[in-house]
Amino acid sequence: MNAEGQQKSSLAQRALAAHGAIALLASALLYIIALSGTLVVVAPQLQRWEQPAAPEQRAISPAAVQSAIAAALARDAGKSPSTFLYVRLPDEDLPRTTVTTDHASWYVDGAGQPIAPEANAWTEFLLALHINLTLPVTWGMLVVGGIGVALAAITLTGVLALPKIIRDAFRLRARHDPWIARADWHNRLGTWTLPFALTIALTGAVIGLGSASVALLARSDAGGNLLAIYGLIFGEEPREDPVPAPLANTARALAILTARIPNVRPTFVIIDHPGTRGQGIQILAEHPRRLIYGESYRFNAAGDYLGKVGLSDGEVGRQALASIYRLHFGTFAGLPVALAYVAMGLALCAITATGTTLWLRKRERAGYSVTRLAAGWKTVVWGTPLVLVFALWARWLVGPDVPLAMLFWLTLAAMIGGMIAWPRVACDHALRIALATALGCTGAAHLVVSGLGPSPLLIVNLALLMTATVVAASAKRGVGQTEPQSCDPTD
Length: 491
Description:
alpha+beta, 15 helices, 8 strands
């Protein structure tokens, strides 16, 4: 081969390598979004588990909410005025009342007195990882929305590419060759979770791309004012007037809402520019047997009812947008639906993992070298949950202010880079054992510190111990199917 031919061949090889690396990166991001999304479904339970000593109450009176707001603003005395003040009211999933200003967030007791600062940094990190990959919000949601579109396309093309997939929905050749069994698991899980995958992909795409589009529209047509764009759908904010004024009468607004519309359950209280003449009150209330995340009821500073936005009975498009969030996160029918979302989310993780593994195997059989890519992919699959556990330990040992996003990405990148550089070390058996050990130690340590505690805490700890057992068992099975001495990353 002449020099020109060798140069073209080298260029083609580099292009193929880049093609494979980009495909692997897209799969890795999809896997991370799917895994974090599975955990986010039970975010309220994880928040209680992360900070088990916070005060809890099943309900809180309007007078106590008023006291909590006043106490929170008193703690902010001497600081810049808050733009918004939020009160999260207790519910069955998270029986805690939280008051949040621009400067701090506090758990309060039944009388409305601040007891402990909110310190659920790890749970918030999971939310950010799923919603925007911890990137700047606009660009992160654009990326996540694009991955949602890709997931929908992959799901549909997978069905079209395998016309017998529905007919063979319950045909599983688990006792055949491991690669045939893996392909069958991939196809069967894809079939069983098809409606779920499409729902999650499409709603995620709408949320991600829609939010990014609103941000870009605000920059071009509203001078960067996001509220002006969102106001067209979710209601306009009160006109700002910074002149000091008595605190808005939230207790009266809550009492009027309960008397006027007794069949709704208030979930959030939002005060715009609290303590000024421009302040207004919004109460978000959940409607039973409705998919919308809630209706927003508006009150003036005196607590007089002004009307509602129309998320519950307004234009069809507005109601549809208000329904997407609960449909995507599985928060519309209690714990049974949440557990079903967790199961299907884990299935989506397995589909992503096996699909990429099968793709790499196919490339290897076609004569391409995939050793490094396979090593990197195995590290993504087993290293991502391992790093999430390490991040949790860092939050507990260092405190809630530890930069979890930076810690997560740097640690995961270092692990993947190391395994790609030295692929023969990338034995997924060792990664599984490390993950099983980390999960087991986390559940056991939490049980020792918190005891049996409320049932959600016990359930999370038992789930960790059971998952550790399953992962350890899978590692043991893997030893019998591969050559442990070589730890071949393409097995």
